Amino acid sequence: KVVRLATFILLLNHYIACAWYAVAAWTSGTATWLQEDYMHEDSRLYYLSAFHWSLTQFTPATQNLGPRNAFERGFASCVVVVALVTFSTFLGKMTSAMTQLLNLNTVRWQEEAVLRR
Fold it and tell me: Three-class SS of residue 59?
């Protein structure tokens, strides 16, 4: 269950990273994060930077990469809302899974205590 949730979040971050790169690559006539920060870099760095940016939207991490125009800012705002809902759901499900695990162990410990008497 936990692995499935983590895989979903990583896959979602991959798609967001691809979209973040596409927004910058297809925007013309205005500055983008891609043009200003990574003008002459390797394409692997483009993806890794976009993926890192995407991950930082889901966690309280920092990233010096940010939107440089109105379209990027709008996209980033939408991503923050999606990240808020997704990460909150993830934390809730993790808490629920840990509580279920604790409850299962508590029942087992109580049964063992009864057998020992």
Answer: coil
